[in-house]
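User: Run a structure prediction on this.
Assistant: Running it now.
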Amino acid sequence: MTGTPTTPQDTPAPSADQLVGLLSRQRDLYQQLRSLSEQQGALIANHEAEQLLSLLGQRQGLVEELGDLSIQISPHRAAIAALANDGSKPVAAEVRQLVDEVRELLGSIIEQDEVGRKELQQARDEVGAQLRQAAKAPAALGAYGGSAAKAGPQPARFMDQRG
């Protein structure tokens, strides 16, 4: 029948090499993401906002690629698990290793991002405290000036009357 949409069950399962290729690509993207996550931590620590924004843009691109790749991999999760558990196939160990590497990378990225989130929150709180302190400064200065500070500039009290 033509014109009938295909379902995941209708599409042939990819070969073991194709599955290894997808998993390798996923691992490589996670390695790049971890590298950016580590750089992000350094940028946060050094208060480099512009570079941080640029890096976040790069990260967003990688996250989108990972999302697309996840959609490609998702219908084949059962085949990947079966392949990983099939000790008779030489690629089984490679598949298990790739899956384990992805899990470890993801855990590392999540951990680093949590540290970065806390550092950003602390920096935000520090800036907020500095802004509140700066907002109090005019009131403190006004307290020392009394009514003269509120009334604006006053004429000079003494004048030099020499000719």
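The helical segments are 16-45, 49-73, 77-85, 92-151.
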